[in-house]
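Lab notebook, bench 4. The sequencing result for the construct came back, and we need a structural model before the next group meeting so we can plan mutations. Quick request posted to the team channel:

Model the 3D structure of this chain.
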Amino acid sequence: MRAGKPRLRGGENMKKTTKRVILASTVLGVGLVASSTFAATNGAAAIQGKISANDGSSLTITTVKNKSINVAIDGATKLYQKFFGKTAVSDMQKGDKVLVRGKWTDQNRTAIDAKVVMDMSIQKRHAVFHGTVQSLTSEGFVLQSRGRGQQTVTITSSTKLFNKERSSITENDIAVGNKVVVAGVWDRTNKTIEDATSIRDLSL
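Done. Here's the predicted structure in token form:
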């Protein structure tokens, strides 16, 4: 009598195969979820919008798509103004346009740990102006500048004052109508020259 072929236990093999498929699917699914969660909470973030709130340690930004984003700021966050000069959180005002780069910290992408924040509405940079003293103020004078209109100049204790020969003068020597050259930090938005570093009175 010929030995018969061993009979396969189809039902048992099918159950084992099914269990393996379920196990693999479960592991794969967990992996995908974990990967998705990691990407959502640790992915690079880059947004632009307007400041709707500033509590001193974080900003609330309303994006161009009208989504509210909380931006956390700490000592490692680099804060810039439009011309890449450094600025502070306290200088950032409601309504200012900002660019933010950092990392998302939640799955819904409503919170960012900021690495860089640039306030495009703070337009300050070092500049030199030529013009005429239009009027005097308690802190300096109003300059009618060439090509940039009126600018309010602030004189501080560190401002260096010279005449045309570069000899030292005092603030009281500067008079209405005098032609001057002013160097300092220019706030383009507010039309001010803050903390003038030097003023040369060409009329003296």
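Residues 21-40 have pLDDT under 50 and may be disordered.
Will bring this to the meeting.
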